[in-house]
Amino acid sequence: MTDTTITGLKTTLLRVPWPGEPPPNGIMAAQDRQYVVLEIMTKGGITGMGYLQPLRGGSETLDACLREMIAPMILGRDATEIEGIWQSIWKGTYWMGRAGVTVFAQSAVDIALWDIVGKRAGLPLYRLWGKCRDEVPAYGSGCWRGLGRDGMIDRAKQFTGMGMKAIKMQVAHIRPWREDVKNVHAMRDALGPDIEIMIDVNMGWTADTAIQAGHHIDEADPYWLEEPVVCEDFEGYRRVAAALKTRVVGGETHVTRYDMRPFFAQPSAPILQPDMMRGGLTELRKIAAVADTWGIQIAPHLFHEIMVHVLCSIPNANYAEYMDWNDDIWAESAIPKDGVVRPTETPGHGVRFKPELLKDCRVGGTEVTR
User: For the residues 119-123, what does the mean pLDDT come to?
Assistant: First the structure.
């Protein structure tokens, strides 16, 4: 058997120019894309890769956390001890953690460890976890509010032209809610009755505004209203869900299943959207298992290139979120075809950054060895 003792961690910090204009979404800084790439080396020669995409900066902070706090906990451990390592990091960073930087760093480790185990087994992750399906439907995400009404509609038609039967548009932040309502109805008129329209508020409204706007949005028959209030306002979630016909969803900003407990204790969101950077693949699959117990589906936040493995291995999969803003960074892009995304058969998660990008866009990083 290959020796999977962890011998080293290597980080590469990347700043990658946008292929075009930065997303005009009103919530992200107009700067280069940032990535933290983590490689975990083992004695037997297998290397696993995990990565993070900080949307508002913090790469060097994450790098410092991995070097100072995380590396000493995992060097010398067996990479197949995924649950044990997850618990060690969680408990070992508890004073400074339970959310934020430490959990993001922990998530990168978890993703890399699963990559190692998949490679050792010679299986893609969705088969390693127990295949449930071959493919999942994808929705086109990125009909940015800053594009304006016509620009959002044009963007949506790009996605439907690729065969997708669902798109997501934004509201709030940049525009007043009455204009948002007009945009939603214009999108429905442009796409017709057979395309699902997801609406993302990005926590931009109060519960009262979400209810007021939502009554008008209901008439356009959208598929969901996402993150209508700030993530801490669980009572607001419940108020909005009770007032509207449209399903209310969320979860991308919540950290681990512990932060999501109110969604299960008093269910009001029929679909949850966990983010792999907020607990890793281990935690995301636990969230999916608990959600399935309550009849709740999973539509993960971003990262469809890895989330397809999760979705194809759980019974309660909903949609994969296809965001095309990273298609240019991968050696092999996971672009949906005929409206669905399929997992790679490469052992592990099968995701690789372009080698030239790791060299040309590198702005920092460290290496820690045993």
Answer: 98
